[in-house]
Amino acid sequence: ASIREFCKRIGVTKQDNTIEMASLESCIREDLNENAPRAMAVIDPVKLVIENYQGEGEMVTMPNHPNKPEMGSRQVPFSGEIWIDRADFREEANKQYKRLVLGKEVRLRNAYVIKAERVEKDAEGNITTIFCTYDADTLSKDPADGRKVKGVIHWVSAAHALPVEIRLYDRLFSVPNPGAADDFLSVINPESLVIKQGFAEPSLKDAVAGKAFQFEREGYFCLDSRHSTAEKPVFNRTVGLRDTWAKVGE
């Protein structure tokens, strides 16, 4: 559907023409936003421990698509130890940063409100664990005292996480028209493929090749049919949630 829409938008011409990659990506993004089920995957994981969480865990209900109730819902395991994305935490931040900050609160997607209390670091100063507390009365609802919690981040239960390889494909060339360069090798994008080792919610173990997912807050991905194994699926990025090249070209 997205390819047909792309062809419809660009039309037919007798002259040679160069079409911006962003035009194709926009069509793909619109199609997948409308039709791809949602799932959670953490691409650059750091462990988060909820110190006052009691019990081994529970199941939380998540919609497969926020705007299409007919696509149903799924049960996702939650526990006192989870993975979050490293970019979703800072020890200090300004007011524009709407994620987890030391001493501040954030909501875990379709789960609880948590507050970052302290961190643990390795010898090089890298954060290895974030320690938090949670408000047990905020499962998929606002705090009873009316306080506002604006940020929402995604997560994966550490005890139930599915190890995944995530291949972040991007544009092969760093310029719109590589044919105009004296040497096309000089304009190859060094980050056209970045491979990450992350964790995903366990439902993705049943993913099949050819079916696209929106990894919430990350982009659109599909299973790699050649390199995936039952123990470790491989997911390839089709397109990001937004055009990250727009600002680069400005």
From TrEMBL:
Q: Which domain of life is it from?
A: Bacteria
Gene Ontology MF terms? ATP binding; glutamine-tRNA ligase activity
Matches recorded under Pfam families: tRNA-synt_1c_C (PF03950), tRNA-synt_1c_C2 (PF20974)
SUPFAM superfamilies per the UniProt record, alphabetical: Ribosomal protein L25-like
Residue stretches making up the tRNA synthetases class I (E and Q) anti-codon binding domain: 152-224
The record's comment on protein family reads: Belongs to the class-I aminoacyl-tRNA synthetase family.
State what protein this is by name: Glutamine--tRNA ligase
Organism field: Escherichia coli
Lineage, top ranks: Bacteria, Pseudomonadati, Pseudomonadota, Gammaproteobacteria, Enterobacterales
